[in-house]
Amino acid sequence: MAEEIFINVARSETRVGVIEQGLLQEVFIERGDAPSSVGNMYKGKVVRILPGMQSAFLDIGQQKAAFMHVTDLIDGHEVFDRSPKEEHPAIKDLLHDGQELMVQVTKEPIGTKGARITSNMSLASRYLVYLPGSTHIGISQKIEGEEERGRLKAILESISQGDEGFIVRTAAEHASEEDIFKDAGYLRTKWQSVREESKGVKSPSLVFEDLPLPLRVMRDIINSETTSIRVDDQETHGIMQRFLTDYIPEKVACLNMAEVGENLFDLHQLDDQIEAALDRKVPLKSGGYLIVDQTEAMTTIDVNTGAFVGRKDLEETIYRTNLEAAAAIPRQLRLRNIGGIVIIDFIDMINDEHKRQVLRMLEKGQASDRVKCNITQISELGLVEMTRKRSYGSLRKMMCEPCEVCGGRGFIKSAESVCLEIFKEIQRMAEQVAGKQCLVMASQTVVDRLIDEQADNVRELARLLETSIAYQVEPGYTQEQYDIVVSIAERAQAR
Length: 495
What we know:
The protein has 495 residues and is α+β, with helices and mostly antiparallel strands. It has 15 helices and 24 strands.
């Protein structure tokens, strides 16, 4: 399917949109005050070891200490070959406080958590991922032809030199042996320069910085389906043109400069699609809809028929809604950059063939995802559990912050609930308010309710506590905010 890439460069933000058939499939955002650190290499220092968790924290110069598990210290590719019952070596036998170590960031700091790091270094190019210190040879699972896989494996085995490993990337399918050799030589040279750089710096220090966002997109995302690459910044256009000429010459013709003053995201309504991706509710064409809820531990996606009533029977209506949802969910995961555990609550289906078709549709959509995913079968409750590798924060994490009114709950207390809280608080102050005047300071909505619906309750409370209650609207107060001020003057004097 034809793919277009739009790159919007502003003074403090760079955005990349990947479009298919006019729909935004993925969006990448990098801001000047918070550049991505994934792929960067640091010389770090161990600041804390947690034997009970088989983990350690390292100072790499970021605001929060970076986290490393024992599996990040040993060859990560051998970890998967271990028996589940085989124990890892104790981390306290591998590290000690104050030890300096070369590490690489594999996951951005998210929320209260620092970056995830590993000592298993990797350097990526167009066709290969270089693994110094490893003997692992791997080929992208998206290269399916056995003959092509065999050819690429033979090339890797011929270029591998001792204590080094390689992974063939998807872009290397049908690439010439010469181009793959050239990539391997480039990566070896780059690794040697990184090693030399690390010897002359003290921890914590940045030793190697990955490419800026536009060039990472050129390296990692461009494929045979890419038909157009448009950028609206002259300097970035020049840098990208040189990069493509050196490394992906067949795609130079796809690169175009936008007209002066033209904002690519505005022109193609991409901002509207990004805005929609921040909503909980995702409408489906049939009239059904998805509800997407992101939490700290996982993301849940609930499928609903909504206004869709179908044409035949209930089972057919449910099947069609689930099928449409299964086609829409993979795009939502990519667009929102949702990672970690995802639970999809499909509407319960009785027909086993319908369940298989829905699952196939979901797997078909995820097959085009550049991020690794694992999908389970539909459970008896209609749930599908899946995981999607998380390296960067989600779109919501990037663009939003918790609401200062609700504190991130997504809800605020009703005016009625706040009124009842005020009554309880005045009752707790019974001794202080007796014979005096109370002034309730609250939002307009709460004061209106106290004056109207709660007027009888207010009078009864004032009579029981032998006080008088007055109100004052505070425009700056949220619906949940209120204060109760007790007058120093006696009630009789206040009258």
